[in-house]
Amino acid sequence: MSGRFRYAESLETARPATPQESPAPIKVAIIEDDRRIREGLSTLINGTAGYRCTHAFRSMEEALAHTWSVVPDVALVDIGLPGMSGIDGLSLLREKYPGVALLMLTVYEDDERIFQALCAGACGYLLKKTPPIKLLDSLGEVLRGGAPMSPEIAQRVLRLFREIRPPERVAYNLTPHELRLLKLLVEGHNYQSAATELGVTFSTINFHMQNIYGKLQVHSKSEAVAKALRQRLVK
């Protein structure tokens, strides 16, 4: 039995989880070419209190051509799509819908695709064997400033961080405090846990992150983490 088939079955049989109450449901768009997985994800999301599936697309071209009547909070994006790949479409999606968090959901777990997705602006990287309850939790984690990753992916990211050689000179004029914050993000902290770790407020973290974005010339936390990994900006 193929991995995609098993994953589709797990979605169909999953019992919906009940997240903590929130003033509005987490709105989710799906970009997935496999019909069973696409419909399974939609059923899981719409059948769980606190979540709502706004759109479900078969390809990146369809998602880009369609005017999203309701802009979602998160988009679940497959990589192996027909036509334009999920990674190639990330920058176009981010340009069209800058407020949408882009979370990869794929069968691929090789270093090259992981690295490309993070550099392209993915906010997290989950494998399709992720249990449904963990998948739902990850949607909320993204909105809290986290970067959810399957355990295997997190291990690969840490290994990439250890192995990638930095350029001879990098000068972004990051302050010691900004470097410490960036290190916490690389280690998997979200904004709230970083604020707790550093003993500052959430708004202070946001302020420093805007400075980091400007200095690194990036537009998202995932891009900042990817650049830190690529250029070994923290130890």
Structure characterization notes:
The chain is of the alpha/beta class and 235 residues long. The chain has two domains: 3-153, Rossmann fold (3-Layer(aba) Sandwich); 164-231, Winged helix-like DNA-binding domain superfamily/Winged helix DNA-binding domain (Arc Repressor Mutant, subunit A, Orthogonal Bundle), CATH 1.10.10.10. 51% of the residues lie in helices and 11% in strands. It is built from eleven helices and five strands, in the order αβαβαβαβαβαααααα. It has helices at 3-13, 35-46, 60-65, 86-96, 111-120, 132-143, 151-163, 176-186, 191-198, 202-216, 221-231, and strands spanning 26-31, 51-57, 74-77, 101-106, 124-127. A five-stranded parallel sheet has the order 2-1-3-4-5, with helices on both faces. Helix 4 (86-96) packs parallel to helix 5. It is globular, with a radius of gyration of 18 Å. The mean pLDDT is 84.
Key traits:
5 strands; Rossmann fold; single chain; 235 residues; Arc Repressor Mutant, subunit A; 2 domains
Tell me the CATH architecture of the largest domain: 3-Layer(aba) Sandwich
Q: Helix- and strand-based class? A: alpha/beta
The gross shape turns out to be globular
Strand portion: 5-15%
CATH structural class of the largest domain: Alpha Beta
Summarize the structure.
By secondary structure, the chain is of the alpha/beta class. The chain has 2 domains: 3-153, Response regulator (Rossmann fold); 164-231, Orthogonal Bundle (Arc Repressor Mutant, subunit A). The chain has helices at residues 3-13, 35-46, 60-65, 86-96, 111-120, 132-143, 151-163, 176-186, 191-198, 202-216, 221-231; strands at residues 26-31, 51-57, 74-77, 101-106, 124-127.
